[in-house]
Design brief:
Length: about 290
C-alpha cells in the first residue's frame, strides 16, 4: 500500500533521493521494490534497519522471494551515486548480487552495522562499481574473522579518489591495521578518517600516524585511545591516558601540524561518557 501511495503523490522518475528511516520489515520493503525500480533518476538511496517478520523466521522460501524482489530492482537505478545500507541483514552472502546490478560508479558507499562474509568482502575488493569511491563507511562491520588482506586490497583500488574513510567499531586489532598501512599511506586525497572503537596498541597507533602523516589534505582525524590506557577492569586510567595520547600527538606533530584530531576512549559503563584527548584531556564525568 505504501508503494502505491508514493506513486500517487510523486512521479517515480522525478525522485532523486530516497531515505527509509523506519524499521521496516523485509516484507514491507519487498512490497515497494517495484516502486523503487521506477525511480530511474535516483541518485541517493538510504536504507536503515531492515528486519525479518517473526512469522517468517522459519520460512526460507518467503525470505528468498523478498530478497530477489528487492535486489532485482537495483539494476534499474542507473543514476545511483550514493548508497547507504545500515543494519540491513540480508546483505550477508548477497552483497555481490546488489553491487553487480549497478551500472554507474558509486561516489559513496556506506555499509554499516552489517554482517559481511569472506565472499562479500572478496567481491567488494574487486567490484567494478567502486573504483571511483570518494566516501567509504564500513563502521560496525566486524573484520576480526575475515582475511586481513581484503580490506587492504579494497583501499589499494581507492588510493586516487578516496576522501573520507570510516572504520569505526570494526574490531580492528594490531594485526589487521598493519595490513592496511601501505595502501592507506597512498590515499593522497583523504580529508577525514575515523578509526574509533577499535583495539589498537600505542605501537600500532604510532605506526598508523606515521604512515598517514604525509597526507596533507587531512582535516579531521578520529582514533581510539590506545589499549594501554585501560586497567584490568577496562576502566580508563586518566594519567596513563594523558601520557600515551600526548606521545601519540607528538609523533604526528613532529611530521605535520594536525588540524583536528581526537583520541577517544570506549564508552564508560558508569556515566556512558567518553574520555577524549585533543590537545588536552577531557575526562568523562566519573573523573571530573
Amino acid at each position: 500500500l505504501l508503494g502505491f501511495s508514493l506513486l500517487e503523490v510523486f512521479e517515480p522518475s522525478s525522485i532523486q533521493e530516497l531515505e527509509v528511516n523506519e524499521c521496516w520489515d523485509l516484507g514491507t520493503l519487498a512490497m515497494i521494490a517495484s516502486c523503487l525500480g521506477q525511480m530511474t533518476n535516483l541518485q541517493k538511496l538510504v536504507i536503515n534497519e531492515i528486519c525479518t517478520p517473526l512469522k517468517w523466521l522459519g520460512n526460507q522460501e518467503m525470505k528468498e522471494w523478498c530478497f530477489t524482489e528487492i535486489i532485482s530492482q537495483f539494476s534499474q537505478l542507473n543514476m545511483l551515486q550514493h548508497l547507504y545500507l545500515n543494519d540491513v541483514f540480508f546483505l550477508n552472502e548477497r552483497l555481490d548480487q546488489v553491487l553487480r546490478c549497478l551500472k554507474n560508479p558509486l561516489e559513496t558507499l556506506a555499509i554499516t552495522n552489517c554482517m559481511l562474509s569472506e565472499s562479500d568482502m572478496s567481491y567488494l575488493s574487486q567490484c567494478p562499481s567502486i573504483h571511483q569511491l570518494k566516501h567509504l563507511d564500513l563502521s560496525g562491520v566486524t573484520f576480526l574473522n575475515l582475511s586481513h588482506s581484503l580490506l587492504g586490497r579494497l583501499l589499494e583500488r581507492l588510493t586516487a579518489t578516496l576522501q573520507t574513510l570510516e572504520l569505526k567499531g570494526c574490531m580492528l586489532m594490531d594485526l589487521q591495521i598493519s595490513v592496511l598501512l601501505p595502501a592507506l599511506s597512498q590515499c593522497s586525497q583523504l580529508t577525514e578518517v575515523n578509526f574509533m572503537k577499535n583495539f589498537l596498541s600505542v605501537c600500532s597507533l604510532k605506526k598508523l600516524l606515521q604512515h598517514i602523516a604525509n597526507l596533507t589534505h587531512l582535516t579531521r582525524e578520529m582514533y581510539p585511545a590506545p589499549s594501554e590506557v585501560y586497567d584490568d577492569n577496562g576502566d580508563v586510567m586518566p594519567d596513563r591516558s594523558a601520557q600515551h595520547c600526548s606521545e601519540l600527538m607528538e609523533t604526528l606533530c613532529a611530521i605535520r601540524e594536525p588540524k583536528e584530531i581526537y583520541f577517544v576512549s570506549k564508552r564508560c559503563l558508569d556515566c556512558l561518557g567518553f574520555c577524549v584527548y585533543n590537545l588536552e584531556a577531557t575526562l568523562c564525568s566519573c573523573w571530573q
